[in-house]
Amino acid sequence: MNNSTHSLAVRVEAKASGPDALDAVLRLVEIDRPKAIPEGSAIVEVRSSGVNPSDAKALLGGMRHAVWPRTPGRDFAGVVVEGPKDLIGREVWGSGGELGIQRDGAHAQRLVVPAASLREKPSTISLAEAGAVGVPFVTAYVGLREAGSVKRGDVVLVLGGNGKVGQAVTQIATAAGARVFGVERTPDAYRGHATGEVTMLGASEGDIAERVREATGGHGADIVFNTVGSPYFEAANRAMAMRGRQIFISTIEHSVPFDIFAFYRGQHRFIGVDTLALDSADGAVVLEALRPGFESGALRPFPVLVANVYPLARAADAYRAVLAGAPERVVLDPTL
User: Fold this and answer.
1) What distance in Å separates the CA atoms of residue 109 and residue 296, rounded to the nearest whole number?
2) What phi and psi values does residue 212 have, to the nearest 5 degrees?
């Protein structure tokens, strides 16, 4: 790591017109290391920072409240080098909806954050893995929490089951003792970790709702975690059990037909989750709640493949890989 009075950071000056235009608006810059930090803050020497779809889409103008110019990056893991004495030298992880969107984020060698937003990473996972946990697991945990939590015996339907949020939902749900059905467009095998039964369904192979009800003796899904939105909206509603809850985190179409009668007769609930509204202090609370699962092995970090780890100088390539739909987590390593 650079020991001079400067450090390196990715800097995005303005919205890019498309993936091929990222190089024109993105620079690797030297910034002065702060001579003093705000009271109650800490400086993290970043060792790993996942690249999320929201990070990449924000560069294309997909986040209306994003400020320019800025350093992207919502997730991080690293070592505290300045701040409260009890944190110095600690290996920490974090995630925040404000980072990289409304203030400079983690795609840099150093990150200044409130000390209250830092938690020590689980000892069972590496810094490289810890930096790739953030947004998918925070989204999964918050969605399930807002739905009233998942418990043993619940039926959970995950639409987009092999996406990273879908895999995180499946990990948390199976660890709680739920039975999980995952859906993808084609009948793909489940690609993530689980500690219980996971049945994958291909949307191209028949009616999702009918198949879930048939497999559950007519009960249906107590929780539907819809990571895709509108394409599965109608089928998801029909799959919901009495008093079922459906969680939304994304969509393609903004408006969809809605059967109000079936909704109130089923005593259903819809829950919207936007992790951009959760700051790094909120993220710290969630990551701390997830820690026991990672330390016991019930939860596992996503694989971080060597081919998917990029230096800051190749940040544009990393963002393009995410926009192209990389199936595994893409990570920036500022030490390279």
Assistant:
1) 31
2) -70, -45
Residues contacting 126, CB < 8 A, separation 6+:
301, 304
Distance of CA 208 to the CA centre of its chain: 25
pLDDT of residue 1: 45
User: Total domain count for the chain?
Assistant: 2
Rounded to a whole number of angstroms, the distance between the first and last alpha carbons of the chain is 9
Residue 187 preceded by cis peptide, ω within 30: no
Work out whether strand 198-202 and strand 179-184 pair parallel, antiparallel, or are unpaired.
Answer: parallel
Interval 125-162: pLDDT, tens: 999 999 999 999 999 999 999 999 999 999 999 999 99
Contacts of residue 44, Cβ cutoff 8 Å, sequence gap at least 6 = 76, 78, 79, 80, 81, 92, 94, 110, 111, 112, 113, 118
Q: What is the pLDDT of residues 170-192, one digit of tens each?
A: 999 999 999 999 999 998 999 99
Query: Is the same domain home to 162 and 115?
Result: no
Question: CATH number, domain at 315?
Answer: 3.90.180.10
Cβ contacts of 278 within 8 Å, gap of 6 or more: 96, 97, 138, 142, 286
> Nearest Cα to 50, choosing from 102, 122, 106, 2?
106
**Cβ neighbours of 202 (radius 10 Å):** 14
E strand intervals along 227-321: 240-248, 269-272, 309-310
Contact between 40 and 114 (Cβ < 8 Å): yes
Range of the domain at 177: 136-275
